[in-house]
Amino acid sequence: QCPWGAPNTASISCSLADVMSEQLAKELQLEEENAAFPEAVAVAEGPFITGENIDTSSDLMLAQMLQMEFDREYDAQLRREEKKINGDSKVSISFENYRKVHPYDSDSSEDEVDWQDTPHDPYRADKPTTTPRKGFIGKGKDITTKHDEVVCGRKNTARMENFAPEFQVGDGIGMDLKLSNQVFNALKQHAYSEERRSARLHEKKEHSTAEKAVDPKTRLLLYKMVNAGMLETITGCISTGKESVVFHAYGGKSVTEDKVIPPECAIKVFKTTLNEFKNRDKYIKDDYRFKDRFSKLNPRKIIRMWAEKEMHNLTRMQNAGIPCPQVVILKKHVLVMSFIGQDQVPAPKLKDVTLSSEDMKKAYYQILNMMQQLYKECNLVHADLSEYNMLWHDGKVWLIDVSQSVEPTHPHGLEFLFRDCRNVSQFFQKGGVAEALNERELFNAVSGLNITADNEVDFQAEIEALEKMNEDHVQNHGKKLPMFSSNGDPPIYDE
Ligand code: ADP
Ligand code: MN
Question: What pTM, to 2 d.p., does this model score?
Answer without folding.
Answer: 0.58
